[in-house]
């Protein structure tokens, strides 16, 4: 079976190449992204393998169907970049990796907060230049602080448990609260408004849907505690960047840690170090001393990459064998 693999990075080739069963499949790796303009390159493939910034709108899906593609495999959990209504109408099966490693993303969220709060990135650069001054590096204890978790899925729950281990009070908000889990781990479910108003730190752990688009807006930010920290390792479009910049300029927010960005497509995962950054809002965010941004690397652990490759290869193999897909992978 032939698979057209898009937005390929070196770690993709490494982990997919050593996954059991991958050697029985015909892989065609493309470094460019999949879109309606590039869908013709899937000709002769039964499967396309895509990532978060590939754009599978109706035009792209129609082109894929015309090229003979039967299955779209997402090597990620999110699927907001796929027109699911069009896929169903065209008879295209779509699978994903719903839980590659919740700990990878949760731990990255906490790592971002610790780095930003304790100014570790700034201290590292100072020491490299033999500047051993501690001026301007004061942070705060996480112990005893209140952390708000918006979204208590697998990643949100993992993050909440880590923060509880630091001795934090954890408030959580979710449309489908898991009360048994919360009781076992000392987590309190409250309204989203109470999470925003009560959190010294607010961390986002929810998917991007029409309902969650710009969940963090000017009104949302105004309800947060003065000096609070915001963490987003989920999806960039959960946050209204323009409103975020205004909250930073006014001094209302104490700090912001992002692993995702609203307009990251075409920027994140690429080396643009020799170019002029054309995104004015990202450029502005990078000027704030209390903002820390990583380029969507929360998933980038050995365990997560191994699981992404394993489930993706298994889904492709099941299509080839005519078997049912794994529970939770089919959309």
Q: How would you describe the overall organization of this protein?
A:
- With 331 residues, this protein is α/β, with parallel strands linked by helices.
- It folds into 2 domains: 2-100 and 301-321, NAD(P)-binding Rossmann-like Domain (Rossmann fold, 3-Layer(aba) Sandwich); 102-293, 3-Layer(aba) Sandwich (Rossmann fold), CATH 3.40.50.
- It has helices at 10-17, 58-66, 84-90, 102-117, 120-128, 154-165, 179-185, 192-198, 218-223, 241-249, 280-285, 302-321, and strands at residues 2-5, 26-29, 47-50, 71-74, 93-95, 146-150, 169-173, 187-189, 201-204, 229-232, 255-258, 291-293.
- The strands form 2 sheets. It has a 7-stranded parallel β-sheet, sandwiched between helices.
- The longest helix is centred in the last third of the chain and has 20 residues, at 302-321.
- The protein is globular and about 60 Å long.
- The mean pLDDT is 95.
Question: What order do the SSEs take from the amino end to the carboxyl end, as H and E?
Answer: EHEEHEHEHHEHEHEHEHEHEHEH
Query: Mind telling me which CATH architecture of the largest domain this is?
Result: 3-Layer(aba) Sandwich
Q: What integer is the average pLDDT? A: 95
CATH superfamily of the largest domain: NAD(P)-binding Rossmann-like Domain
CATH topology of the largest domain: Rossmann fold
CATH class label of the largest domain: Alpha Beta
Largest beta-sheet characterization: 7 strands, parallel
